Amino acid sequence: MTILITGFEPFGGDTVNPSWEAVELLPEGVGGHDIRKLRLPVVFGRCGERLMAEAERLRPDVVIACGVAGGRAEVTPELVAVNWRMAALADNAGARYDGQPIAQEGADAFMTRLPVNDMVRAMREAGLPARLSLSAGAYVCNDLYYALMAAQERMGYRGLFIHVPPLSVLPAGETARAIACCLRCL
């Protein structure tokens, strides 16, 4: 199985992004799966376009996108992507949204079909902080999640978004170990 896994570039004045730091540490293969990595811009719309172009090229079986959630202390697979943009913090291109749909005629939400409860259990059994989260929010992480879920049937992959905590809460190596636990559940 080929898995495309993404992390984001730094944003909001930070010099690193824990999601990319962890993704970069993943080996080329986990649990017999071939791992391909992609770093994405923290820009509404553009991150999804870049992901779709790479998914079209690679034709992966699974796409897992990762991003940082500043206020979280656990690695959190996200159950739902919502059709909504709202952000007080500008993205790296300066865009802010005060509440509007991502896709005017799109579905209100998409729910992953990947085994997120098994993933949370596997991370906890490995001694890593983990919990299930219901929604990826309304910032660029959710924007990306919505784009990848909206295209999954057409592209033939299954998708998921995983939020990771800041490096001050969980070092990149431990976060990479948590993501690897999730990949082994596929």
State the low-pLDDT regions, or none: none
- The overall strand count is 10
How does the helix and strand content classify structurally? alpha/beta
The helix content, as a percent range, equals 25-40%
Separate helix tally: 6
Hey, roughly how much beta strand do the residues contain? 25-35%
* Spatial separation of the terminal alpha carbons: 9 Å
Rg, Å, rounded:
15 Å
- Give the biggest sheet: 8 strands, mixed
Per the principal axes of the C-alpha atoms, what is the gross shape? Answer: globular
> What pattern of helices and strands is seen along the backbone?
EHEEHEEEEEHEHHEH
> Could you state the oligomeric state of the chains shown?
single chain
Overall mean pLDDT stands at 97
Characterize the structure shown.
The chain has 186 residues and is of the alpha/beta class. The chain contains six helices and ten strands, in the order E-H-E-E-H-E-E-E-E-E-H-E-H-H-E-H. The strands form two sheets. Strands 1, 2, 3, 4, 5, 8, 9 and 10 form an eight-stranded mixed sheet that branches. Strand 2 and strand 3 form a beta hairpin. Helix 3 (116-125) crosses helix 6 (172-184). The longest helix has 13 residues, at 46-58. It is globular.
